[in-house]
Amino acid sequence: MHSRRFAITDWQLVTIACALSAFGIAMLYSAGQVERTTAFAGLWRTQLQWLVLGMGIAFAVSRASPRLIELMAVPVYVISIVLLLALMLGLGSGAGTAESTKSWLTIGGRRLGQPSELAKIAVVLMLAKTLTSRRETPNSLMDLWKPTVVVGIPWVLVMSQPDLGTAMVLVGLYFAMLYWTGASWRLLLLVASPGISLVLAFSTELWGAWFLLLLALLFMGRKKPYIVDAAVIIVANLVLGVGAPRMWDSLKDYQKDRLIVFLNPEKDARAAGYNIIQSQVAIGSGGWFGKGYTQGTQKRLSFLPQHHTDFIFPVIGEELGFAGVMAGLGGLCLLLLRAVRIATRSLDPFTGIVAFGLASGWFVHVIVNIGMTVGLMPITGIPLPFFSYGGSFMLACWISVGLLVRISAAGRGRADAFAI
Amino acid sequence: MSFHPNEVARRGRIASFVLIAIFGALGARFFSMQILQHSAYVLQSDKNRLNEIPLPAPRGVIYDRTGQVIAENVPGYTVSILPQRRDSLPVVLDRMARLVPLSPDEHAATMRRYRQSAPLPAVVFSNATFEVVSILEEHRVEFPGLIIQSVPKRHYPDSSAASAFVGYTSEINEQELAARVDSGYRPGQQIGKSGLEFEYEAQLRGRDGTRFLEVNASGRVVREAGVRAVLAPEAGPALRTNIDMDLQRFVAKLFGDSLIGAAIALDPTTGGVLALHSAPAYDPNRFIGGVSEAYYERLRTDRRNPMYNKAVQGAYAPGSTWKLATAIMALERGVVRLNERMPVQCDGGYTFGNRRFRCWDRAGHGNVTLREALAKSCDVYFYQLGLRLGLDSIAAAGTRMLFGDRTGIDLSPESRSSFPPGQDSALYKYYVDRFRASWWRGQQDGEPLNLAIGQGANSQTVVNMARFYTALASDGYAAKPEIVARDPQRTKIFQLTPEQTEALRVAMTEVLSERGTAGSAAIRGVPFAGKTGTAQNPQDPTRDHGWFVGFAPTNEPKVVVAVLLEFGQHGYLAARVAARIVEHYLKASVAVPSTTGQ
In this complex, is the C-beta atom of A288 within 8 Å of any C-beta atom belonging to chain B? Predict the structure, then answer.
């Protein structure tokens, strides 16, 4: 039994994850090579230790049975909620440029880790469990109250840190996992509609048009409209559409800055727009093959901010050029495709949803992080899986790999049959 | 809840498709930035890290005709700061002021230069002493953006002796900067302000080079060398002048600090300026790297006006030196013969209408010929010549003889000499009206009398009178005065017969004999011709200006000299100065003049 499991380890997944981790450590080493050596020069060693630890945990996780994983969902979820609450109750502290936030669990002055990384996995497990506990595909808003609460509690806690990045990941997970359970596009759109109202509220005409479309969506093509659903959706859209400007006022200045700068980085090229511009300069100046490993001037002369964490991908762009970027993007894309493939191969709904949830979590990380470095996404302070420096995140990524390996082993057909 | 394998596979396909599409879009974005817009981003990346440090080019050396150096470059130091941030500069300067003398003015000037040229380093001291440089070098760690450069510094070996024509360089000011915005001038740079330095600025400045410093995000200099190839500065080409520095030094010494006025020595055949001096002079070396407030104030308030070039800017009534022009006009028109005596003898004055025009010599000159009238400078004789010529003809001939013009000497700013315009001039009618109709009745026709003796509406620069005498020294060709050596430009301004020319020269030689007005200025062994003059001084009627313009040797002129002494009372003082100049020049150039003429 033991030997058989080992034999069907998803080597493709493991190889891709190992390659990405090695690439990540190499880039982290380069990120430390600057003109005036700082303490960051040794971070790659710490990261390597976290990687080894993460691989060890992943190996252990890959040996657990799917039922054990399902059983663990509730306790893990509860623990992570408790930890997030603990952050709010005075055990949280900020770090680096985000000094005022409370994302680090700190006891006795020692920073132990970032509970939000655990929370992402916990939410995936808990949401999968909740969604599969019902035997029907969610069809109306009323069917969604449980999943919404499961994601909503940690979402509120994370937002209050505030950690916009993790909050975005949770929202991404929620929609992706609903999709995987077979929820209709129409339902997903209705759920998303208050958010869309929020964005469109800045133009009265656009919002008006959207509101008419929404009414059509609610009442047409249905023999028996859900009155309560419709009422909730309409009220939510009205509240957000009308209240958006007021919510804008209540945002912190740095949050407003980030959004404004995302829309127009040149507006404040020295201050808030600086990060986006320098990141793009680093990437753009890389060309086909880059300025050479460790030789990026934007990084060496510290024009590129936070090049160990959020802005590590521009280091690849600058030093290894388009070729390096393609390797990085390609590796991440293969990883995600592989995870989706594992989800489709899984024999039971729970593991399938978990696999897809993990993939969608990574996906949000990758798209928001890399999109931010090229100015396609606002700056949200979200790390890049396997590349950005961070112990908790490295552990979380490899625990996800371990879970995926386990799910893959229990799946339909051959693990290494590679297909989309 | 449908987890039928087909259903799940369909969802997987859609998810994979979305995944690939979004990654493809990201990849396209990278392609566009890294490949399509690559060069723009490279430029921006280089602009981030490379700071251009200008390397000033050495100015062209200025030589005299024998190859002696008039203006050269010596090593100097500039101290500049490359501020890390705009607001950090005052703090850095305050810190610097505790180590080296830095006046509030210099502080303010540095801030101004930085505002004007923000990305470039701001010049703090454009002419730092070795002491300041060594103190700052010692404390280099405290000044991250400190740039100490060895730059060529202008130096004038003869200091004030050459200041009248060589001028000086100094820091470019805001107006000059605004006017030259396209020619690559930067704040804190040196620029020619006057004299040849100003006139030939475009040529002398050469082409500045550039060196690159690599700086990090906080503006600290990371690397100085090898970042990118240095563009070497290109020195300005040398300027060869007609000046004879030995003579120039002699002239300057002659004037010393006691005489006020100007002197010019010209080569009569080429117009080459052998010497040009304006006294009192200033020291151009003290302007290099910024003139001190005290020195500038002293120059500005000096009533002798050292900064005013009396050789080209000052216009004075030419007085009797101009009588040669009257004589030439009269001879050219045939209204007088060489030996002709005037109907009215000189008894110390001439009555015209109801007005008495006096001769300078109250005793009178008696019955004189043109030659004697010139030698003795008899005004009465010339009043009658003036009447024979008439205003129109004097105006027309004077204009033809270039008395209403600038010489065009390569030394700005040159004042325009003024003279009543000829009949073909647009100003003619204005002058005619002024002197014929609206002039005071009793004087209305007296203007030709005044003009004939070099008074009236006639003011000439020293350089213009020197030019006129080059025509006397040749056969009617006026040579344009040129400081920098180039092809001579000569203009025929009158036409006399050889006998007439000879007679005028004899008359001018007699000026410097016992019978003439400047007998004390004769040079032993050198036939010397010239004419004294006394110009009424509008500022102070009791202290006239003294003139002398002449040439030597008389028969084969090698040098024309014009001297004006402010408050020099009478021309014979100026004549003595001129004689010394001529003597010095001729003894230096030809051992002993062999001419045996009168």
Answer: yes
Query: In the predicted model, is pLDDT for residue A209 greater than 60?
Result: yes
CB contacts of B220 in chain A (<8 Å) are 36
pTM of the model as a whole: 0.68
CB contact under 8 A, B27 and A329: yes
At residue A413 the predicted structure's pLDDT band, cuts being 50, 70 and 90, is: low
User: Which band of pLDDT confidence, cut at 50, 70 and 90, is reported for residue B518?
Assistant: confident
What is residue A410's predicted lDDT score, i.e. its pLDDT?
85
Mean of per-residue pLDDT scores for chain B: 86
Confidence at A301, pLDDT banded by 50, 70, 90: confident
State the Rg of chain A over Cα.
22
Q: Are B338 and B370 in contact (CB under 8 A)?
A: yes
Q: Contacts of residue A284 in chain B, CB cutoff 8 Å?
A: 33-34, 37-38, 40-42, 44-45
Is the Cβ of B40 closer than 8 Å to some Cβ of chain A?
yes
Per CB-CB distance under 8 Å, the chain A contacts of B21 are none
Chain B CB within 8 Å of residue A179 CB = yes
User: Residue B109 pLDDT more than 90?
Assistant: no
**Contact of B587 with B573, CB cutoff 8 Å:** no
- Using only C-alpha atoms, chain B has a radius of gyration, in whole angstroms, of 35
Residues A349, B3: C-beta atoms closer than 8 Å? yes
CA–chain centroid gap for B477, Å, is 25
β-strand pairing of B239-240 with B62-63: parallel
Query: Does residue A120 contact residue A361 with C-beta atoms inside 8 Å?
Result: yes
Q: Are B32 and A360 in contact (CB under 8 A)?
A: no
Report how far residue A241's alpha carbon sits from residue A297's, in angstroms, rounded to the nearest whole number: 46
Phi, psi of B151 (to 5 degrees): -125, 150
Q: Which residues of A touch B5 (CB under 8 A)?
A: 412
Residue in A with minimal Cα distance to B11: A180
Name residue, tokens 């609206």. B438
Q: Are B314 and B262 in contact (CB under 8 A)?
A: yes
B41 min Cα distance to partner chain A (Å): 5
Nearest CA of chain A to the CA of B212: how many Å?
15
Q: What is the pLDDT of residues B392-440, one digit of tens each?
A: 888 888 888 999 889 999 998 899 888 887 766 666 667 666 666 544 4
pLDDT at A392 over 50: yes
Say if residues B569 and B535 touch (Cβ distance below 8 Å): no
Residues 298-357 of A with CB under 8 A from B: 298, 300-303, 317, 321-322, 325-326, 329, 332-333, 336-337, 340-341, 343-344, 348-349, 352, 356
Test the B interface: residue of A33, A34, A35 with most B CBs within 10 Å: A35
In angstroms, the separation between the Cα of residue B3 and the nearest Cα of chain A is 7
Residue A181 near chain B (CB below 8 Å): yes
Q: Which two tokens stand for residue B245?
A: 């520095």
| B226 pLDDT tier (thresholds 50, 70, 90) | low
DSSP H or E run through B213: strand B209-215
Answer whether residue A223 shows pLDDT above 70.
no
- Of the ranges B17-31, B522-536, B581-595, which one carries the lowest mean pLDDT score? B581-595
